[in-house]
Amino acid sequence: MEQQTNGPEPAAVSEPVSRRGLLRAATVSAAALGTAGLLAGPAAAAPAGHSHGRRRVPVDRISIQLYTLRDQLAADLPGTLAALRRIGYRRVEHAGFVGRTAAQFRAALDAAGLRATSGHTGIPQPFDAATWEQALADANVVGCKKIVHPYFGRDAEGRPIRDAAVYRALARDLNQAGRLAERAGLDFGYHNHQLEFVPLTNGSTGFDILTEQTDPRLVHFELDLYWAWRGAHDPVDVIRANRGRIRQVHVKDLDVEGGFADLGDGVIDFGRIFAHEREAGIEEYIVERDDAGTPPRSPADALDTARVGFDYLASLRY
Asked: For the Xylose isomerase-like TIM barrel domain, which residue ranges apply (predicted)?
């Protein structure tokens, strides 16, 4: 394996918008609302999922990926964590330790009254058991229950991977990583982007290979709902094909141009997806927006995204 994938969540990647995925997301959400008006713009999408059902996202399962607040955390770690707790978050998913040791980061979380139940830490490539075991030890210091490989899909030159053999090799590495994680008392997962849904030279997709060739007992999936739609894959179809393996979801919204949006301002009908939560096996609903707090927005805007996301999920009915 040549791709370097260890480390925290990478910078947001810019991929060409799959027009098919965008239109399908909008059309499916419009059908759920009983109107095609959703296609007219974000405002029409805001009520999606709020108008029906008695089920709700358990508040204690709402989390946030700290990559969303990376600049704010770098400027003021204790203050930002405290602000998240005031919003209502009880748990977070880390994307590295913000320049601290695992013990220092855990102390900052404890002081804020938060738990990092999950973390993004890439497996070493080429795979090295000793390096991975140290990452697992750090995860246990922080208090994580889950550790997630955050990114794959490009070769050393930055080109999208189209070779099925590369994904088969990754699946073997993921199984090794999952086996060691299990021994360390941790659940191991894989987080998707759009690239895993790009057709390979053999006609399959990287996501197909990863789901088929990883051991369900060792590897679960953290399904990023935005990137699935960007890859022209309906998350409900992904759930149905992988029952019990979608234990975490990244909840981020898709605007009408294919960019990021705060929850409720885009075209994704999250209620429709979460209606399949038991089939999926979802244990965590993780708010994320890749461009929150980055120009032209200010770092402080990331807290607005966090607040909107928490309130949206807490009030959602489906």
From this structure: 81-287
